[in-house]
Write a structure and sequence with these properties.
Elements (H helix, E strand, L loop, with lengths): L9 E4 L2 H10 L3 E5 L9 E6 L2 E7 L2 H6 L5 E4 L3 H11 L7 E5 L4 E7 L5 E7 L2
């Protein structure tokens, strides 16, 4: 019996409007927030195609004390991964180009405006 339903990473942001613009270029839309307009909110949920991320405003001092981790998002297949890469490569700086990795995945990655690393991947197998 499955007991877990979903994972919603909370990503630190220094400026909500900058992050909403960044993620908006990637097709993510706000689905809730602690106030409107969302650009002035301290906490906003964004979503695209079933993937939901939460954005929380941090001060520079709080960001220095907070640990962030790389987020790895598994895609439904290689075709979806390649299509997403092709869609996004003209919109943002992809720091880890689409490539096969020695650990058995095909993936690409980038940093958001707060330097949180995101990787999108499929198993090569």
């Amino acid at each position: 019996m499955a007991i877990f339903k979903a994972l919603h990473p909370v990503c630190p942001v220094l400026d909500m409007s900058v992050h909403l613009h960044f993620w908006g270029k990637l097709g993510f839309l706000p689905v809730f927030g602690d106030r409107e307009p969302y650009e002035t909110a301290d906490y906003v949920g964004i979503a695209r195609d079933g993937l939901e991320l939460h954005l929380q405003t941090f001060t520079r001092e709080q960001l220095q004390e907070t640990q962030t981790m790389a987020l790895r998002i598994e895609m439904t297949g290689k075709q979806a991964l390649e299509a997403l890469h092709d869609e996004w490569k003209e919109r943002i700086s992809i720091s880890a180009p689409l490539a096969e990795k020695p650990w058995g995945t095909v993936e690409f990655g980038f940093y958001d405006p707060a330097n949180t690393p995101f990787f999108f991947y499929v198993d090569r197998g």
